[in-house]
Amino acid sequence: MVIDMNEAQVRTLEQVRQVLAGTQAMQFQATADDEGRYAWIGSVLKRFDYPRLARADRGPVLAYLQRLSGYSRAQITRLVARWSAGKPLVKHYGAPRQPFARRYTPADVALLAEVDRAMGTLSGPATACVLRRQRDVFGDERYERLGSISVGHLYNLRHSAGYRNQRVLLTKTRPTKNTQIGVRKAPAPEGRPGFIRIDSVHQGDLDGVKGLYHINAVDCVTQWQVVASVQTISEAHLLSTIAAMLAQFPFEILGFHADNGSEYVNHKVARLLDKLRIEFTRSRPRRSNDNGLAETKNGAVVRKEFGYEHIQRHHADRFDTYCREYLNPFLNYHRPCLFATEIPDPKKPGRIKRVYRPCDAMTPLDKLASLPDAASFLRPGITLLELHKLARALTDVQAAEELNEARQELFKHTLTRRAG
Q1: pLDDT at 197
Q2: Is it the case that residue 111 has pLDDT exceeding 70?
Q3: I want to staple 217 with a disulfide (CB 3.0 to 4.6 A). Which of 90, 198, 296, 300 is the partner?
Q4: CB-based burial of residue 284 (10 Å sphere; 0-12 exposed, 13-18 middle, 19+ buried)?
C-alpha cells in the first residue's frame, strides 16, 4: 500500500483526474496498516463531500481511492457504502465458526464398513434396511445411531476417509525406470497381419484381495483376438501365458505393442520377444490412441463377457480354458467386426476420412482371407482351407448358443462377488 506525503494538496476533481491520467506527480509513502488506510479513505471522502457529488464525479474519486489504497474496486465500494451509512471504518473480525457437531462417530463408520464387508456392499436403501433391522429386530445397541441413518448420509459415510481406510486398498501403477526396453512408437503394420496390441484387464479387488487378470491381444489389421486368463501378472504366470497366446494366432507375429505397464515393459518379456524375433513397441506419451484397439476390445468383448465383479484368482485355469476352447474361436470365426474404409475428406482437402460401411463388416478370418497373398502370412502347417473348415463346423448362431451355455456353466461353479 502507498500513500502520498503531499496527497492532502489534491482538493479538486480536476486534480484527481490529473493524478489518474498520470500528469500530476505524486510522492508516496509505503504502509501496510489497514487502520491508516481506512482513516485516509474517510478523510478523502469527507474532503470531496462525496455524498453531494454528481454521479459522473463519483467514479474518478472511487478510482482515485483504488489507485492509492491498493484495495480492489469491490472493497472500495463496500468501504464507501459503510462510510456513507455513518458507520466507522474499522476492521471487522467475525467470530470463529463453530464446527458442526458430528452425529456419527468413527466407531459407527467402522461398523458400517463391517456390515458392507459382510453383505457385499448392497445399495443404500438395502443397507439402511439392514442397519435398521439390526437395531429394531435383533436389538443390537451398537446400531442405535446407524439404525436411523438416511440413505444420502450413508453414502456420505462411505465416501469418508475413515470408511475408505477400512475397505479400500489402492495400488498405483508402478512406473518403469528402464527406458531402453521397447521402442516408443505406434505399430506400423502396412496392411500385414501379425502386429498385435496387448492389454491387461483386472477382474476387481475385494477387501484388499485381488481377482484374476485377463490378457487381451488383438491384431491391428485383421482384428484377430486372443484372450487368456491368469492368476497374477507376475513373471510366474504371465510369461508362459504370453507365449501360449502368440502361438494361438494363425499367422507369424511380427510386432508386439503394449502400454507402459511394468508387467510388459521388463527384461524378461523383452528377451522372450527378442528370441522370437518380434519387434517390441510401446505407447508414446500423450498418444492415447496408440493402444486404442486393445482398449476398445477390453470393453466391447472382455468386460461384456466377464463383467466387472470380483472373480477369485484360483478360478484362472478354468477361465483360461473357457477362453481357449470357446471364446477365442467364436471371436475369430463367428463374430463380425467393423473395418474402416479410408476415403478423401470432402471438407478437408488432403485429409483422409475413415468410414465404417455395413458392407465392410466381416469376421477376422474373412478379413485375413481377403488380404492379398494371405497364405504367405500363415504359420507353417496352417492353411486357409483348414481355418474355413473349422469356422463352418458350426453356424454363427450355434456357436453363440454354445458359447452362452459354456459361460453359464462356467459362472455356475464360480463364486463372484462385487469388488469394493
Answers
A1: 93
A2: yes
A3: 198
A4: middle
Q: Cα 127 to the chain's mean position, in Å? A: 28
Query: Where residue 175 falls among pLDDT bands split at 50, 70, 90?
Result: low
Rounded (10°) CA dihedral 70, 73, 74, 77: 100
Residue with cell 436389538: 139
Domains of the chain: 2-84 (no CATH), 106-167 (no CATH), 183-417 (3.30.420.10)
> What is the Rg, in whole angstroms, of the alpha carbon atoms belonging to the chain?
36
Q: How many residues does the chain have?
A: 420
Q: What would the grid cell of residue 386 be?
A: 483348414
- Cα distance between residue 86 and residue 244, in whole Å: 87
What would the grid cell of residue 340 be? 474402416
Mean pLDDT over residues 23-45, rounded? 70
Q: Read off the pLDDT of residues 257-299 as tens digits, 9 standing for 90 and up.
A: 998 888 888 888 888 888 888 888 988 887 877 888 888 899 8
Sign of the Cα pseudo-torsion (331, 333, 335, 336, in order): positive
Model confidence band, residue 3 (pLDDT cutoffs 50, 70, 90): very low
Half-sphere exposure of 97 (CA within 13 A, CB side): 3
Give Cα separations from 59 to 45, 53, 71, 161, 165 (angstroms).
12, 10, 15, 51, 57
Phi, psi of 339 (to 5 degrees): -120, 140
Which one, of 384, 378, 381, 380, lies nearest residue 365 by Cα?
384
pTM metric for this prediction: 0.56
Q: Taking a C-beta distance cutoff of 8 angstroms, is the pair 83, 42 a contact?
A: yes
